[in-house]
From TrEMBL:
This is TonB-dependent receptor plug domain-containing protein. It comes from Larkinella terrae. Belongs to the TonB-dependent receptor family. It is a multi-pass membrane protein. Residues 618-715 form the TonB-dependent receptor plug domain. One of its GO terms (biological process) is monoatomic ion transport. GO terms for cellular component: cell outer membrane.
Length: 822
């Protein structure tokens, strides 16, 4: 066997590149280029992962989804302390629309939030989707998604799901190992049989050639998946006949084989120490060159090897100790350095946390205080500091409908690196399942994976990402000319107006294409922003648009989740209790409303105060309307003939203004002019647009004395719409200005749980909460310990407790406990 083998592994943050074996030839530069470009690509586009734990899988309208997000970096699974913003969407499956959008503040890799479910939400299936701004640079397939079901308390349980068997044609797909079949060479074909609802189906069948010969038989191994081996022959086409448990038979074509090429087969099961990679080819003897194999996991190279194409069969053994826990990808490049085969493998290292939840007693009474002692240790039994989130639910109301549901561990190590929905992901992490590793290997052969495309990796340069890592809220947009062309560099002023009346004024400029962004903003709830753009000295003939006011669109080609199916009576107790709780809440709100007898109050109407005025009552006021602005050439022309005692003469653009009685021996004394309370020249008033004027006050005689000797000729005070404290800037369509309302960080709400050791009036009402406790930020100490307390409800039931969490260096863990209330 002629192989050049190069191994890459991380030691203390450095990449060590030892050449392990070189026999018979001098290597070309492709392995070096492959390694360099691979490392450069993942340096330019590092990956992030997000996981969200919720308190339960289904809700009624009126309830709250309590959630906590975990942010990790892709390669090492370290807690992601760089991204400070987490976006969470609630998507309705039927309409494929975002019905709720939340922005959560992330600190040290954790984000806490909630979604209050309004009465307007329709019953049915939903998906919770979470992502960072940086993740928007890549495919939505790797956003975190989690199915949720929303119910109405007035719905019949039988209407909330359909448990009738599906009789539609199943979906059966065939996946040649490595990606292709080659004539005359034995290969393995994995297959997956799923129902229209996306669930794996038990099936068996056989393969027929176009000549009518039976080639092989097959049957599913786990959740509709399995594999078989066959050797395709030249000129033959193959068809699989699949028989389901209901007796129906369906036929599907097997992918056609290529006349020549490579076959890639991986043995990840039989050898304890190594992963064996078998590479065979039937290239003509005249073919010269070397094929290349690279193994990588989460953007870190593990090993690169080369072999001579003249060797028709080669075995490469990769030590298991080089693989981190999780999914690794093995890719085969042919002698022309083109990728021709790919295979995923899963490496289990059992490097996960043990989370132990110990209740203070075995059985509790209704409304009794429950104490849980939490202990967390690593795989070696050493206690570790861990950040956890914990949910305690009434098992009679919150049913575990999905066996082996997803957890932080299964998502981080498995689901986050695969496309599509994985059925029962927790099955592959339960040591009680003896066949789980072989079943997991079949899953690796059938599930989609495309974190990147090799063509993009091997480029010499990479385009700049559109979305940056967000260390705060981002205000981004673009300035263009009215003809939509780039304006060049534009000066920008931003005014942020918060609900608490505080303001921030920022200034900056766009790039030459008019693009701009303000990063690192920090505000809660919604905030109004006014943006003004100026090109050159005073050119505001510009248009401004914002880019990030909406969440990403939904681009599913097919619905990835189906609503949970319930039996007729399963939800009866839950819906009954939910309805009682909502009725009580409505009654409490009604009781807080104090009904008064009808009282008639008479008071003289006072004119609204305007903070721009330093005087009291004006002598005369002219409220400007459309009938005045239609033919007026100037602001002063609108006064002509409308206010007694005000005389305007001369040309419209150079008028003489006199208020009756304002004259001396030198002639006419013109009044003092002000705009929004600021003294200005008459020319300034003449240049003001008549459409910007709200009203005009005229002050005569004693009313003008507050302005001193400057107002010996009286005062004409012009007040603009924009200057008013009550002006709605969103209606301002002036060039170079944009006003918008920006969503801010969601204010964190605290989960309410009654304390029955403290007597309170509200304790008299019945308590049948489905979620008894939600604690999103539990931190164990140096001894790996923490403690949680809460109170049981009135229900004599079973309580399920689920705690999930991870260390800052990326070790995940899940703990469960079952408590009895009698």
């Amino acid at each position: 066997m002629n192989l050049l083998l190069v191994s890459f592994r991380r030691l203390g943050g450095m990449v060590v590149v030892p050449v392990l074996l070189a026999l018979g030839f001098v290597a070309d530069d492709f392995p070096t280029r492959l390694f360099d470009r691979f490392r450069a690509y993942h340096t330019a586009y590092p990956k992030e992962k997000v996981y969200v734990q919720t308190d339960k899988p289904y809700y009624t309208v009126g309830e709250t989804v309590w959630m906590k997000g975990y942010l990790f970096d892709g390669p090492e699974h370290l807690a992601d302390s760089i991204s400070k913003v987490l976006y969470v969407d609630l998507l309705q499956l039927e309409s494929r629309k975002v019905v709720v959008h939340r922005i959560l503040r992330a600190e040290n890799g954790y984000a806490v939030g909630d979604i209050a479910l309004g009465d307007s939400l329709a019953a049915g299936g939903y998906v919770l989707r979470a992502y960072t701004g940086w993740m928007r640079n890549f495919a939505e397939d790797y956003f975190f998604t989690k199915p949720l079901t929303i119910l109405h308390t007035d719905s019949e349980p039988a209407q909330l799901g359909n448990d009738k068997p599906l009789t539609a044609r199943p979906d059966v797909q065939f996946f040649p190992e490595g990606g292709q079949l080659v004539n005359g060479m034995e290969g393995r074909i994995a297959f997956k049989t799923v129902s229209p609802a996306g669930k794996g189906l038990t099936a068996s069948g056989f393969v027929l050639s176009s000549a009518g010969d039976t080639v092989t038989g097959f049957s599913t191994k786990h959740l509709g998946m399995g594999y078989f081996s066959m050797t395709p022959e030249t000129g033959q086409h193959y068809t699989a006949f699949v028989k389901l448990d209901d007796g129906s038979t369906h036929k599907f074509p097997i992918p056609d084989a290529r006349p020549e090429g490579y076959v890639l087969l991986v043995d990840n099961i039989t050898n304890r120490d190594n992963v064996r990679v078998y590479i065979r080819n039937n290239k003509p003897s005249s073919t010269q060159g070397r094929f290349t194999v690279i193994a990588q996991s989460r953007g870190v190279s593990i090993q690169i090897a080369q072999g001579d194409v003249s060797k028709k069969s080669v075995v490469l053994q990769i030590p298991r100790q080089l693989f981190p826990e999780g999914i690794a990808q093995i890719t085969l490049f042919d002698e022309t350095n083109q990728p021709v085969g790919e295979r995923l493998v899963f490496s289990e290292r059992n490097n996960r946390l043990t989370v132990h939840l110990k209740p203070s007693k075995a059985v509790f009474s209704p409304r009794e205080k429950i104490q849980l002692d939490i202990t967390v240790s690593d795989a070696s039994g050493k206690p570790v500091r861990t950040n956890l989130s914990l949910a305690a639910t009434d098992a009679h109301q919150v049913l575990e409908k999905e066996p082996y549901a997803a957890s932080l561990a299964s998502y981080l190590l498995l689901s986050s690196d695969l496309k599509g929905v994985i059925e029962q992901p927790g099955y592959y992490f339960d040591p009680a399942n003896n066949e789980r590793l072989s079943d997991l290997d079949v899953l690796m052969m059938t599930q989609g994976w495309r974190r990147f495309v090799w063509k993009d990796v091997l480029q010499d340069t990479y385009p700049a990402p559109k979305h940056l890592v967000e260390q705060g809220l981002v205000l981004a947009g673009k300035v263009v000319r009215p003809n939509q062309k780039a304006p060049g560099t534009v000066a920008l002023t931003f005014m942020l107006m918060r609900r608490d009346s505080t303001q921030n004024i920022l200034s900056g400029e766009s790039d030459e294409n008019g693009q701009f962004s303000v990063n690192g903003l920090d505000y809660s709830d919604s905030t109004r922003v006014m943006i003004q753009a100026v090109m050159g000295k005073n050119n505001r003939n510009l248009e401004i648009s914002l880019e990030n006011l909406a969440s990403p669109t939904v681009t599913w080609t097919q619905i990835p989740y189906k609503p949970i199916v319930f039996q007729r009576d399963e939800l009866a107790d839950y819906l009954k209790r939910a309805k009682e709780y909502l009725d009580i809440e409505r009654q409490i709100r009604r009781n807080r409303e104090i009904m008064l007898k009808e009282v008639t109050i008479r008071k003289k109407k006072e004119a609204p105060t305007d903070s721009r005025k330093i005087y009291g009552q004006a002598s005369n006021t002219l409220k400007v309307d459309q009938t005045m602005t239609g033919g007026a050439q100037s602001v002063l022309q609108m006064l002509q003939g409308r206010i007694a005692g005000v005389n305007i003469s001369g040309s419209p653009m150079n008028p003489t203004v006199q208020i009756r009685g304002s004259a001396n021996f030198a002639g006419v004394v013109e009044p003092l002019f002000t705009i929004d309370g600021v003294p200005v020249s008459k020319d300034a008033v003449l240049t003001l647009s008549v459409y910007d004027v709200d009203y005009i006050d005229v002050l005569k005689g004693a009313a003008a004395t507050i302005f001193g000797s400057r107002a010996s000729g009286g005062v004409i005070a012009v007040y603009t719409k924009r200057g008013s404290p009550d002006y709605d800037y969103s209606k301002d369509k002036s060039p170079g200005t944009l006003v918008a309302t920006l969503p801010g960080f969601r204010t964190v709400r605290e989960f309410y749980a009654p304390r029955y050791d403290e007597p309170k009036p509200e304790h008299v009402r019945p308590d049948y909460r489905p979620t008894l406790h939600w604690a999103p930020m539990i931190q164990t100490d140096a001894d790996g310990k923490a403690q949680v307390t809460f109170f049981a409800s009135d229900a004599r039931t079973t309580i399920h407790v689920l705690a999930e969490g991870a260390t800052t260096n990326g070790l995940p863990g899940v703990g469960k406990a079952v408590l009895e209330v009698k």
